[in-house]
Design goal:
By secondary structure, the chain is mainly α. It has one domain. The chain is 82% helix and 0% strand. The chain contains 6 helices and no strands. The chain has helices at 2-9, 15-39, 45-68, 74-98, 106-124, 130-163. α3 (45-68) packs antiparallel against α4 and α5 (106-124) packs antiparallel against α6 (130-163).
Amino acid sequence: MIPASYYLITPMQFHREIAMLFILVAVSTDALDGYFARKFNEISDFGKIIDPLADKIGIGIVVVMLTIFGDIPLWFAMVILFRDLIIFIAGIYIKSETGIILPSLMSGKIAVSLLTLTLVFAVLQYSWMTVLFGFLLWFTIGILVYSFLEYARRFFQTLQEHKK
């Protein structure tokens, strides 16, 4: 996400479009990496930690920048950052209490994909996208909340099962 950040802050023709392309490349390569890791059974505990962490950091950087530029509302950024921080801390807690490293949930992957689409719309700022961006913003919040509740359910379920 560093190249995307660079182009977001560099005033030049098509800088936002270039930033958007870097965001899409990052998301695409991340998805391909996950696909091939599962396909060839190359899933590791390290990968279960570093991949979601890298996603959270990359998205966090773009979210903070778009908030500073006024492209997304502060409350939206806070929901994203708070959710990711809580899920990360809960994952660390589960690991320390049970020794288990939980993989990402499909609802989380869908939420991040939808969030990326919403951020792309925020980056581009085309006038014809305004209504769709507003819809995406609220739809993304709903999916983020849903996935957060799924993570919370799994968190407490894992702790409960480990106590038995």
